Amino acid sequence: MEQLIKELVEKANLTEEQAAKATEVMVAFVKSKVPPMFQDKVDDMIAGKFDMGSIASMLGGSPLDMLKGMFGKK
Q1: Whole-model pTM above 0.85?
Q2: In terms of C-beta density within 10 A (0-12 exposed, 13-18 middle, 19 or more buried), how is residue 18 classed?
Q3: How far apart are CA 10 and CA 18, in angstroms?
Q4: Burial degree of 19 (CB within 10 A; 0-12, 13-18, 19+)
Q5: End-to-end distance of the chain based on CA atoms, in angstroms?
Q6: 8 partner at 20 to 30 Å CA-CA among 14, 55, 66, 68?
């Protein structure tokens, strides 16, 4: 989250306190829009630790299996 705060300070001319609060509000908003099982993943994504494999396993398969299913192959 520190990187996002830094970007807001630099690009939106916010103070560090304003950027931190904006980030906090944004994260809470995003978490309110995703299913509960994905809410902890929001923090991971913002921290740059996004792991598609862990999300896929929560949904019952690997990313490759999910793609095969999208194209009618099992």
Answers
A1: no
A2: middle
A3: 12
A4: buried
A5: 38
A6: 55
Encode pLDDT of 6-49 as tens digits: 999 999 999 999 999 999 999 999 999 988 888 888 888 888 78
Tokens of 51: 């792991």
Q: Are 31 and 44 in contact (CB under 8 A)?
A: no
Q: Which residues of 22-56 are buried (b: 16+ CB within 10 A; e: fewer)?
A: ebeeebeeeeeeeeeebeebbeeebeeeeeeeebb
Average pLDDT over residues 48-74: 64
pLDDT band at 72 (very low <50, low <70, confident <90, very high): low
CB–CB of 13/32 below 8 Å?
Answer: no
